[in-house]
Write the structure tokens for this entry.
Amino acid sequence: MQFLVIGYDGTDDKAPERRLAVREAHLAGVTKMKEEGKAVFGVAILDEREQMIGSVLVVDFPSRADVDAWLGNEPYVTGGVWRKIEVLPARVPPMFAK
């Protein structure tokens, strides 16, 4: 089942620093998930200055519990980057899949 994951970064002065500190680990994890068929696509959310302030991922896991298990180890979660997370069931239509 596919899920839309929206992670919003903290808004404090240290938020960009936290993001950069774990960004490589986050990208490595998402790359592995893409190879395993668990990550469909993702984008960074930007503010009006084009600074990263969050992320959107479409992931494919058997259940919401599996999404939550992944989030429990996601560097942007464990590193305190994402301060608000929304998870919604979703479906990518065939024209956008692949």
User: Anything to note?
Assistant: Residues 2-90 form a domain with the Alpha-Beta Plaits fold (CATH 3.30.70.1060). The chain has one domain: 2-90.
